[in-house]
């Protein structure tokens, strides 16, 4: 029996597309719903209490409306703060996105790694715990950048940042004590892989960037193994909690990710 239930990806904005893309490549037959909480964007400058209250309530509404087989919280900020609350509230498998500190530590030769996320993510105990478990012998430098989040949103709408702008935003990390020794940076915000080309150009190819997208895709494939899919591929759907001129400009980029239907919640 064909099962039309989608996989639902959730982020504050367009960043979660960097998680959706490798999952869609691995599971081309999966129906996809991508939700951007544009009414709540940005999350990275919000308090823990706001995120912990907002995300489970919104995902509850979304689960009722779209009946997903699995939810991916494609946002490090929401995952490091609210993953446990969401799992407690919903009876659906929930996959979170947390900073890829383990592969970064495995890849580092200098033993100095950077964690580049939002201000809210980099101050989480969850990150302390990942660093202690997987990078105990590394210096782990952290930086939260709301500027890079904005640049990624604008880039998807066609307005790419300059290498100088990226370099200036990275200075908060690379300018720290031992920052010049960083050889691996964890993209601990799902928006940042959308700036991959600019990040490589701004660091002259000297720094390797890692993110959780490919690992999450494998996890989704594992959790949905043996499940049925629709007989014909269904068009992907992008959902915004608030629409604006900015969200309208995103339509061509969303179509490139297979999201051809756009609606507001
Ligand atoms: N994409 C989000 C993350 O992974 C957060 C961006 C924001 O809303 O500040 O943390």
Which key terms come to mind for this protein?
265 residues; alpha/beta; Rossmann fold; 2 domains; 17% strand; globular
* Number of structural domains: 2
Strand content: 15-25%
In the predicted model, the low-confidence regions spanning at least 5 consecutive residues are none
CATH C-level class of the largest domain: Alpha Beta
H and E string: EHEHEHEHEHHEHHEHEHEHHE
Radius of gyration: 18 Å
Hetero groups in this structure are: D-glutamic acid
Our count of helices gives: 12
Number of strands: 10
What is the average of the pLDDT values? 97
End-to-end Cα distance, whole Å, is 29 Å
CATH topology of the largest domain: Rossmann fold
CATH architect. name of the largest domain: 3-Layer(aba) Sandwich
What percentage of residues falls in helices of 4 or more residues?
A: 40-55%
Derived from helix and strand composition plus strand pairing, the structural class reads alpha/beta
Main sheet: which strands, in order across?
4-3-1-2-9-10
Strand count, sense and barrel status of the largest sheet are:
6 strands, parallel
- Shape category: globular
């Amino acid at each position: 029996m064909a099962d039309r239930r989608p996989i639902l990806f959730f982020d504050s904005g367009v960043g979660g597309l960097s998680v959706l893309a490798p999952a869609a490549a691995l599971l081309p037959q999966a129906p996809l719903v991508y939700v951007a909480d544009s009414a709540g964007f940005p999350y990275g400058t919000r308090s823990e209490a706001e995120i912990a209250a907002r995300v489970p309530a919104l995902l509850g509404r979304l689960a009722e409306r779209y009946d997903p087989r699995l939810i991916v919280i494609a946002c490090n900020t929401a995952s490091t703060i609210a993953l446990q609350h969401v799992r407690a509230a919903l009876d659906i498998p929930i996959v979170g996105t947390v900073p890829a500190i383990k592969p970064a530590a495995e890849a580092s030769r200098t033993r100095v790694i950077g964690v580049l996320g939002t201000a809210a993510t980099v101050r989480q105990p969850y990150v302390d715990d990942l660093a202690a478990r997987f990078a105990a012998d590394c210096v782990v430098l952290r930086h939260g950048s709301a500027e890079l989040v904005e640049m990624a949103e604008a880039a998807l709408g066609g307005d790419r940042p300059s290498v100088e702008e990226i370099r200036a935003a990275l200075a908060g990390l690379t300018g720290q004590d031992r920052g010049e020794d960083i050889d691996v940076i964890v993209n601990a915000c799902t928006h940042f892989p959308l700036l991959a080309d600019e990040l490589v150009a701004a660091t002259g190819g000297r720094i390797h960037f890692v993110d959780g997208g490919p690992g999450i895709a494998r996890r989704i494939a594992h959790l949905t193994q043996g499940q049925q899919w629709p007989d014909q591929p269904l068009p992907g759907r992008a959902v915004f909690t608030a629409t604006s001129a900015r969200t309208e400009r995103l339509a061509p980029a969303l179509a490139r990710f297979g999201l051809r239907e756009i609606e507001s919640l």
